[in-house]
Amino acid sequence: MGNQKILKTEIAGTIFIILLGIALHFTYSLSNSNPLVGLFSAVNESVWEHLKLAYWPAMFWTLITTIFSRKKVNNFLAARAIGALIMVTFIPAVFYSYTTFTGESILAIDITSFFAAVIVGQLVSYRLFRFRKLPLIITVTTSAALVMLATSFIVFTFYPPHLPIFQDTTTGNYGV
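Request: output the structure for the sequence above.
Response:
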């Protein structure tokens, strides 16, 4: 697969992840709090729940592109995994960095950090697709991290630890 085609696919993925992430912000309330929808959507305004808005669309994009890109680029699974892990790391890093100084959440920064996280994650994936073959241990390790993260999203939707990242910033509640 040529570099231009890979780049176009990653740009399309960036747009897809952002648009689906925006939609997932609202789907839980629009579904009348359906628990199944809550597994993939933000069920409250906690930082943790907002990570789903990048993670699940990135995983869905991975499934879509597996069909036509997996064997045409290097490091497909590792690149997708590392890109997704960057997304879900970038968002809380930005949030906790700026709120340490401001003492409050600023919606424009939160939205911008989501967009930036997706863009950076997709750029890293793109670069890794073009990189020489990575050791198998990297693919195994990053894939295991994605499985653990998916499991955590599912479990912590219903049974979140009482830690600040899981607390709804508007109600003070945790989980559903």
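The helical segments are 3-30, 35-38, 47-69, 76-102, 107-129, 136-158.
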